Amino acid sequence: RRERARARAAAPAVTRDGVRVAVGANVGSAADARAAADHGADLAGLVRTEFLFLRRDAAPDAEEQLAAYREIADALGGRRITVRTLDVGGDKPLRYVPAAAEDNPYLGVRGIRHSLEHPALLREQLLAIVRLAHEAPVSVMFPMVSTVDELLRARRMLDDAVTRAGGGAPAGLRVGMMMEVPAAALKTAAFAPHVDFVSIGTNDLAQYALAAERGNAALAGLSDGTDPGVLRLIDAVCRGAGGRVEVAVCGELAGDEAAVPLLAGLGVRELSVAPRSVPGVKEAVRATGLDVAADVAARALDLADAAAVRALLADAGR
Ligand code: PEP
Ligand code: MG
Known about the structure:
Layout (H helix, E strand, L loop, with lengths): L1 H9 L11 E6 L2 H9 L5 E5 L13 H14 L5 E4 L27 H6 L1 H15 L4 E5 L5 H18 L8 E6 L2 H5 L1 H4 L5 E4 L1 H8 L18 H14 L4 E4 L10 H7 L3 E4 L4 H9 L3 H12 L4 H11 L2
Parallel strand pairs: 1-2, 1-8, 2-3, 3-4, 4-5, 5-6, 6-7, 7-8
Helix pairs in contact: 2-3, 3-5, 5-6, 11-13
Bound molecules: phosphoenolpyruvate and magnesium ion.
């Protein structure tokens, strides 16, 4: 029975009407990557690279990073890994990078803003990612992008890394960005010509859309990704992507089984979740019919609050 469950977890997740939804895992270490493989993940939809940079006195060089990323790729046995460039700053400072104190770190120099202010760090990281992409299927993704200009500057640095690595552009290298700033979500069509995919970070997207800090226990009920305001942003991303650019969700909402029909109904075709959540999310995909899901999703957009959306989902699931 255990063998059968493992095989089922590793099999592709296809909706009742035959549409594939990739279910990946979020990983922040090689151990996570092994857990992802054990639980049948189709890919690593988000590799958080902060683990390599925090709690130390100097940045890892490209060599050390390549070894760490390679270990993750190896654990996933040839399945694609989506490496997110460093997402620090604000509440996650680096000991070896001087940073001004900020009153509102979540609205400060973090994510791609931090990387563009400290290009030497980003240059080294992109070199490691490009080198790995010559060995394995790799996607690179930039966090906290607000403007097309930021994306283009990061892409130019990626081009430089490809030149420096030599051997031409790696055939399997795909380029994407996180959608976690509400204004960026609304501008998806402007970003679309410059990316292969976007991945919605519902943790930050909900935090910024609802003006409710994600870690603040007093606001725990407020920053819910099923709030119709957040769902409208996700809908805007799917529409802006227009079928040409793949849309993934890698925030916590993706691992919420009840929300799977909602996200699939809006047009999301990749979910990246905690490794242990992969089998359950795949089952939720298999239980979903896209025609019904699209209808439920459309109705959810017009509801008043997250509680009403959750009631609708519970009702539709019966
Ligand atoms: C998110 O914001 O939803 C996300 C996936 O990124 P992180 O949780 O690392 O900020
Ligand atoms: Mg985020």
